C-alpha cells in the first residue's frame, strides 16, 4: 500500500514539475525544438534542473542500496548500443517533433486539453500495443519491466 | 527568443528531478513514463497497482496546480487531430522500441550516466529538431 501511495505522490510531483516548467505546453516544446526559428531555450533549463537533482538522487540511492519501500533497485543494466535503441529514439523524435508532445505531458494534459490529449494518448497506447505485436521487437528488455 | 522563462523552467525541472529521485529512493524504480505506461499493457501483476497510481498522480497534477491558486496553466496545442494521432502512434511505438522517452532516457538515464540513454536522447532531440525544421520551415507553415 505504501508503494502505491508513494507512486501516486511521485506522479503528482512529476506532473507539477511538467506544468511549472512549461514542458507540458506543446507550443513551448516546439519553440525549443525550433532552433532556426524563434528559439526558446527554456527547456534546456528544465532538462538541466531535472538531471542535476535526479543524478543526486541516483547517487544517494546507489549508496544506500536498498530502497525504502522495495526489496531492491530496479535499474536498467544494459550498456550496449543496438540498432533498436537508435531506431526507436528516431521514431520517437519524429512524433515528438510533429506535435510537441511526449508521454508525460500528454498524460498530464488529459485534464487540461482533454480532446487533444486523449487523441494523442489513445494513439500512443495503440503504438505501444503495435510494438508488442512485432515478434522480434518483443525480445527481452534490459531488466524485465524496468526499462527506462 | 520569445517567452524565455529560465527561472520557472529550472524550478519545474528541479521538481521533475526530485520526483525521479524520490521514486528511486522509495520504490526503487526509474520514473520513465513510457515504461510505466507500457508495463500496464502486459497482463495484470503485482506491479499494476503502483503503475496506475503513478499515472493517476500525473493525470491529476493540473488539479493540484490549480488548487494552489494559479488556475490551469495556459497550454497551446496547435497540431490538428489527425497529426496528433500520427504523432501519438510514433511516440508510443518509438518509446517502446527505444526502451524509453524524454523522462526515462532524458532525465533518469542521463542522470545515472547511461551511455544508451545519452545516445537515445541525442538521437530523439536531433530528429525532433529536424522534424520541426522540415514541418515549419521547409514544407512551410
UniProtKB/TrEMBL annotation, chain A:
The chain crosses the membrane at residues 41-61, 81-101, 107-131. InterPro entries: DUF6691. Keywords: Membrane, Transmembrane, Transmembrane helix. It comes from the Bacteria. This is YeeE/YedE family protein. It comes from Methylorubrum thiocyanatum. The lineage of its organism: Bacteria, Pseudomonadati, Pseudomonadota, Alphaproteobacteria, Hyphomicrobiales.
UniProtKB/TrEMBL annotation, chain B:
Its main location: membrane. GO terms for cellular component: plasma membrane. The chain crosses the membrane at residues 48-67, 79-97, 118-139. It comes from the Bacteria. Signal peptide: none annotated. It is a multi-pass membrane protein. The keyword Cell membrane applies. It is found in: Cell inner membrane. Keywords: Cell inner membrane, Cell membrane, Membrane, Transmembrane, Transmembrane helix, Transport. InterPro entries: Sulf_transp_TsuA/YedE (IPR007272). PANTHER family: INNER MEMBRANE PROTEIN YEDE, SULPHUR TRANSPORT DOMAIN-CONTAINING PROTEIN. Belongs to the TsuA/YedE (TC 9.B.102) family. This is YeeE/YedE family protein. It comes from Methylorubrum thiocyanatum.
